[in-house]
UniProtKB/TrEMBL annotation:
Gene3D superfamilies associated with the record: Tetratricopeptide repeat domain
Protein name as catalogued: Pentatricopeptide repeat-containing protein
Listed NCBIfam families: PPR (TIGR00756)
Sequence ranges of the PPR repeats: 10-44, 314-348
GO MF annotation, one: RNA binding
PANTHER family: PENTACOTRIPEPTIDE-REPEAT REGION OF PRORP DOMAIN-CONTAINING PROTEIN (PTHR47926:SF448), PENTATRICOPEPTIDE REPEAT-CONTAINING PROTEIN (PTHR47926)
Pfam families, sorted: E_motif, PPR, PPR_2
Domain of life: Eukaryota
GO biological-process terms attached to the record: RNA modification
Record-linked InterPro entries: E_motif, PPR_At4g14850-like_plant, PPR_rpt, TPR-like_helical_dom_sf
Keyword field: Repeat
Length: 498
């Protein structure tokens, strides 16, 4: 309103409006303001161009970015203003299909600053080219470029995506060598990297070396152990609370997830009480975690209670509830939920179809499951992957329709993996389909020749059909394999004891 009332507007006024709209994520209005400014004949400066390039990035509008680039060359701004050059790099890195244009702008910058290097590293890393990001990071160190914590954090993230702990250790060493070990966000990212590289010992050691921890540090440790060692998540959670840190939604989501993995219902109920006391019970992500936890702990009633009380639901909410119903054999409830979800306007994705197909499989709803499989490709245009085909093979196999399951595997658009043949083998064992079972067994053996579990599986198949010669031969082969099959474990919660 104030802008509209102004009789005279200079470039600072227009730039302030463009920047303001960007800050409020009204990128379309920011672009319209820039076009209006040009129509009024106001000449843009470097601050205007860097602001409008952020607009182009926000709109993911490569063509607009190119137009602004042309204007920057015409004005003589490109190559003489680092802010414009960095913003141009960011647009090309975000909107282009490759990093070639961003790299070209980067190479043309005479005096690169920390933002230039960070933008280049980020561009490679965010598009999934971790090694490209790490090469740019190495180049920055070799050329003694201006360093900042952000460039190290992005390089650590690139290492995490590769899963190679040795690369991560090298970047960790570079962090220490350049004096960033006291920067908490950098150390938090290294902590996360060690967990993603399955190096829990290194992560725990680093955690104890960090003198000033924040909630993110604790959350990273708890979330990391949720996957690698769920029991540790509980211990760390208790330690966090005892040291005076207040758990947030992220903390509770990880610990509730650990409860679900261990089926600790009593602990899960206590955590639910803590969530309610802190007023976090309406958090969407946390509610989804509670639905999943109660389902895994055998309490499908409480899962449905939380689900029905949620003020708003996303696709994860519906999927978690379907998976819970499927695991408890309530196939019809899962299919009803699927139909209700579609009516609510949410489009099902691959994971939703996996949930409903698995539910149909456990409940013996074969024709219903096959109908959803056809709907998936013909109506929703969702391409089935290996896991979906595995669900359908399981659906047919459990119902004794082993030949149909085998024909489905043969007609798959890609080569079936070991898990699909294992599902078929289990169906052959259950329904005494000897010929197809032998074929499935040979395929499993081809794909996993050095796994003790494979031989144990095949041995059980031969034992089920009374082929004791085959059992003895496989047991003999197993003794020659170095790795051993892990012993199975199960547990039960009784009177607050596991």
């Amino acid at each position: 309103m104030l802008f509209d009332e102004m009789s005279h507007r200079d470039v600072v006024t227009w730039t302030a409006m463009i920047t303001g709209y960007n800050s409020c994520n009204h990128h379309g209005r920011a672009w319209s303001m820039f076009c209006e400014m040009l129509r009024y004949g106001t000449r843009s400066n470097e601050f205007t161009l860097s602001a409008v390039l952020k607009t182009c990035k926000g709109l993911s509008a490569l063509l607009c970015g190119k137009l602004v680039h042309g204007l920057a060359i015409k004005n003589g701004t490109q190559g003489s203003c680092i802010y414009v050059d960095n913003a141009l790099m960011d647009v090309y890195a975000t909107c282009c299909s490759s990093m070639d244009s961003a790299r070209m702008v980067f190479e043309s910058i005479l005096n690169k600053n920390a933002v230039s290097w960070t933008t280049l590293i980020t561009g490679y890393t965010h598009r999934g080219d971790a090694y490209g990001g790490l090469r740019a990071f190495r180049q920055m160190l070799l050329e003694e470029g201006e360093l900042c914590p952000f460039s190290f954090s992005i390089a650590v993230r690139a290492c995490a995506s590769t899963g190679l702990v040795n690369l991560g250790k090298q970047v960790h060493a570079a962090v220490i060598n350049h004096g960033f070990e006291s920067n908490l966000p950098v150390m938090n990212s290294i902590l996360d990297m060690y967990f993603k590289s399955c190096s829990a010992c290194e992560a725990k050691q680093l955690f104890f070396e960090i003198s000033q921890k924040d909630t993110i540090t604790w959350n990273t440790l708890i979330a990391g152990f949720e996957t690698l060692d769920p029991k540790q998540s509980f211990c760390i959670f208790s330690q966090m609370v005892s040291e005076g840190f207040s758990p947030d939604c992220f903390t509770f989501t990880s610990v509730v997830g650990a409860c679900g993995k261990l089926a600790f219902l009593y602990c899960g109920q206590q955590l639910h009480g803590g969530i309610f006391r802190r007023g976090l019970n309406n958090n969407l992500v946390l509610s989804n975690a509670l639905i999943d936890m109660y389902g895994k702990c055998g309490n499908i009633t409480d899962s449905h209670k939380i689900f029905s009380q949620m003020p708003c639901k996303n696709v994860v909410s519906w999927t978690s509830m379907m998976i819970g119903y499927g695991a408890h054999g309530h196939g019809k409830e899962a299919t009803k939920l699927f139909n209700e979800m579609v009516r609510s306007g949410i489009k099902p994705n691959t994971i939703v179809f996996m949930a409903v197909l698995s539910a149909c499989s456990h409940a013996g709803l074969v024709d219903e499951g096959l109908r959803y499989f056809r709907l998936m490709t013909r109506f929703y245009n969702v391409a089935p992957n290996q896991e979906i085909y595995g669900c359908v093979v399981d659906l047919l196999g459990r119902a004794g329709r082993v030949k149909e399951a085998y024909q489905l595997i043969e007609n798959m658009p890609f080569k079936p993996d070991e898990s699909i043949w294992v599902v078929l083998l289990g169906a052959c064992k259950a329904h005494k389909q000897r010929s197809i079972g032998k074929l499935a067994a040979s395929r499993v053996l081809e794909m996993k020749p050095n796994e003790a579990g494979t031989y144990a599986l095949l041995s059980n198949f031969f034992a089920a059909e009374g082929n004791w010669t085959g059992v003895a031969y496989l047991r003999k082969l197993m003794r020659g394999i170095k790795n051993k099959k892990e012993a199975g474990m199960s547990w039960i919660e009784l009177k607050n004891q596991v």
